[in-house]
Amino acid sequence: MEIPKEFKLLSSEVDWCEENYRVTPFIAEFWNTVSNAIFLIIPPILSIKYKNYGEVLRVPVGYVWALLTIVGLGSIYFHSTLSLVGQLVDEIAILWVIMCAWALFLPSFMLPYPMKRESFYRMMTVLTVTFTVICFMNPEINHNALHFFAIPCVAIVIYASSITKSETIKKLNKISIFWFVLGFSSWLIDRNLCEYVSAFPYLHCFWHLFICIGAYLSIVSQSFFYAEMEHPESSPEIKFFPFENEESWRFVGVPYKSRSTTMPVAKEIQNLAATWKQSGQENIDKQLEAAGLGWAKRKIAVNLSTTVTFSFPDDDTFHVDFTTKVMSKKEKFSISKVTKHKNFLDEDVESELFIEDGHLVMVTRGGSPGEIRTVRIVEGDKLTIKTTVVKKNVTGIRYFERQK
Ligand SMILES: CCCCCCCC/C=C\CCCCCCCC(=O)N[C@@H](CO)[C@H](O)/C=C/CCCCCCCCCCCCC
Ligand SMILES: [Ca+2]
Ligand SMILES: [Zn+2]
Fold it and tell me: Of the ligands numbered here, which is closest to the C-alpha atom of 71?
């Protein structure tokens, strides 16, 4: 069976200055292929160094490092075959890594108003799929068109430099722009002025090296900027692997957002730590019914006045001590990780905590009522707890007063 023409060697219309099959008959552009090794070294190191960042700040940062590695693999496939499919893989991987970096690291104040992070992720996914389809329709112009993505990237980096308080981030941004300009010049000359540089047809290899350095440095500085803007309480700091403690070698190492075990309890939720007595309620019967609680238990629940004590025994624990006249319950939830526990129907569920608009939000999944979202809002000595059964869109509200 004959392979489709798009997979055939040299089926791409794009061909670089390096002479084809000069070094070995198995690889079309040998040096352009092997220079992608840098993409297989630096992003995997960063994905390891960034594990803690992802867990503490709840950013799926592993995607961006995985995609940058895939850029390298796609480029290896492309330069070794110069096939049209290779070209598409190379271009689509670049598109995805840029879209992913924007989705993850643009601070909330830079998102289109009034979009929340989740909706922004969805919008970026739709845009990425749309651009991917366009890539398939017109592969010839993509590799030129993709360069226009550099304009917002550089604009974001310059803007971040103008508002960050960190000298390290400003310096990293300058260095990444320097590598990008050097890389882009090499790309342009190799692509358009090959006849003038035929004595040295390896500028595209240098583009691979320079753009990889520029891209990963700008991602590191942008991730740091995101942490600084969104979670200043996590005391973000950049360290340089492997020269972490040697000041004079700092900028030679691979920078990453420094390790911090857990985030200190954020200021905006610290005032939740108190004993609260219920003073009123709205729609609780409907909400409990939507959550699957039987009539008899609901009648008891709505008529019981509740006292609840919240505390943060350490930076990573949210403690709930809940009492009514007929029952009491103590529960512990991790702030940085998902907590497995039983729900009120004695089913195994998982809860995660996060801060949204300054309030502590808990989302519980896995039980028969589906997702349950609980928001705790403190205003002075008043606490409002809103519990929503998401799939039925029913919310019950309890009002509490702080006990002195
Ligand atoms: C919040 C934003 C922060 C900035 C994020 C920047 C993310 C950039 C990520 C990846 C870009 C990697 C590009 C690698 C290309 C390697 C493969 C390759 O050489 N392909 C060529 C064919 O072999 C192809 O012709 C190249 C096409 C051009 C791609 C243009 C990419 C624009 C990259 C913008 C980088 C901005 C760096 C920021 C510097 C301040
Ligand atoms: Ca060539
Ligand atoms: Zn290339």
Answer: 1
Cα–Cα dist 7/83, whole Å: 6
Instruction: Decide: 188 in ligand 1 pocket, CB within 6 A.
Output: no
- Taken in order 75, 155, 356, 169, the sign of the CA dihedral is positive
- Do residues 207 and 354 share a domain? no
- What's the ipTM? 0.96
The reply to whether 15 and 110 lie within a common domain is: yes
Ranges of residues in the chain whose predicted pLDDT is under 50: 259-262
Please indicate, yes or no, whether the overall pTM of this predicted structure exceeds 0.80: no
- From 79, 94, 148, 225, give the residue whose CB has the most ligand 1 atoms within 8 Å, as the site to mutate: 94
Domains held by the chain: number: 2
Q: Provide the domain limits for residue 212.
A: 5-258
Cβ proximity of 68 and 74 under 8 Å: no
| CATH number of the CATH domain containing 386 | 2.40.128.20
Whether 331 and 239 share a structural domain: no
Q: What are phi and psi of 278, to 5 degrees?
A: -70, 135
Give me the pLDDT at residue 315, please.
Answer: 72
Domain end residue (candidates: 232, 258, 284) = 258
- Do 248 and 330 share a domain, yes or no? no
Pocket test for ligand 1, best of 211, 217, 230 (most atoms within 8 A of CB): 211
Asked if 224 and 257 touch (Cβ cutoff 8 Å), the reply is yes
244 with 280, same domain: the answer is no
Q: Same domain for 225 and 358?
A: no
155 and 197 in a single domain? The answer is: yes
Same domain, 273 and 245: no
Q: Which of 253, 212, 237 is nearest to 53 (CA)?
A: 237
In ligand 1, which atom is closest to the CA atom of 204?
19
Q: How far is the CA of 238 from the centre of ligand 3 (A)?
A: 30
Q: What is the pLDDT of residues 192-229, one digit of tens each?
A: 999 999 899 999 999 999 999 999 999 999 998 998 88
Which tokens in the block code for residue 62? 């592993």
Gap between the Cα atoms of 97 and 136, Å rounded: 17
Position 323, amino acid: T
The residue whose CA has the least distance to atom 1 of ligand 1 is 102
